[in-house]
Amino acid sequence: MRHLQETVSALLRASHPLPVLAVTAVAAGLAAGSGRTNGAVVTVTAAVLAGQLSVGWLNDLVDAERDAKAGRTDKPVASGRLSPSVVRGGVLASASAAVLLSLPSGLPATAAHLGALASAWAYDLGVKAGVLSVLPYAVSFALLPAFVVLGLPGHPWPPAWLVAASALLGCAAHFVNVLPDLTDDTAAGVRGLPHRLGAARSRTVAAGLVLATSVLLVLGPPGTVSRAGMVALPIAALIVGAGLLMGRRSGSRAAFHAVLLVAVIDVLLLLSAGVPTS
Rounded to two decimals, what is the model's pTM? Predict the structure, then answer.
């Protein structure tokens, strides 16, 4: 029993639980705001959760050798606390579950979800080490609202502003996710777009991306701007500006924290807007 508990615990750590939970929570909120039935919301949430688990486990599996050389004791596979065969089984099981749980939403929605997952898997399998490292994040995030909306009656497509905002948020997520490990990744031979730009320029790009996302989410929907949007947009601009200004100091993480905070605002705007159809 103890061995089983340790294996489950290690699997959870290897899945990259925070990104998994964040993306799954956003998907659940989008599904709930789209007018889906309660049962459909549960199915969509479970499909996204399964898919994100497969992405997280594949990432740790592929990076195991590099993480081991870097002495990453926090990585269960690299440290030997978790067998690679167990993780491979988890990847296959969760990927299969993601497909099966997507099918009740219909073939167009299933295709969108599989496209998002294929893009994320491609990132794990090598795209993250090249100049196009941001592309899988853009594609996968853009297809998330498409998966939700295409499951509605008539299989409508989400409006362009929502797809674009999701893609920009995904690009920002890539930069924010990579920034803390920029030095270690570079030493290990990973040369994604943030690594090529360097920490300072990457922080600026991430800040611009989350601010552009805010603009699209506030000004993109037809009709008058919501009160929440009128408040959120200047606040986001002030946070980004202050973060970049304070981030000039040596060793400061103000810009990084500012980007994270505005990203949270963007997610809240995304969820509060619901999921309109085109």
Answer: 0.90
Q: Please, is 154 exposed, middle or buried when counting C-beta atoms within 10 Å of its C-beta (0-12, 13-18, 19+)?
A: exposed
Contact 240, 262 (CB under 8 A): yes
- One-letter amino acid for residue 206 of the chain: A
Q: Does residue 71 sit in the same domain as residue 163?
A: no
Question: Do residues 213 and 168 touch, judged by C-beta distance below 8 A?
Answer: yes
* C-alpha span between 216 and 165 (Å, rounded): 6
218, 225 Cβ separation under 8 angstroms: yes
Q: Domain check: are 126 and 23 in the same one?
A: yes
Residue 35: band (very low, low, confident or very high) from pLDDT cuts 50, 70, 90: confident
Write the single-letter amino acid at 80. G
Token code pair at residue 195 = 């690594």
Q: Which domain holds residue 22?
A: 1-153
Between vectors from CA 141 to CA 122 and to CA 276, what angle results, nearest 5°? 150
pLDDT tens digits, residue range 93-150? 999 999 999 999 999 999 999 999 999 999 999 999 999 999 999 999 999 999 999 9
DSSP assignment of 184-234 equals: HHHHTT---HHHHH-HHHHHHHHHHHHHHHHHHHHHSSSSSPPHHHHHHHH
3-state secondary structure of 101: helix
How far apart are alpha carbons 278 and 156 in whole angstroms? 7
The residue written with tokens 């995304």 in the block is 270
Identify whether residues 100 and 226 lie together within a single domain. Answer: no
| Structural domains of the chain, count | 2
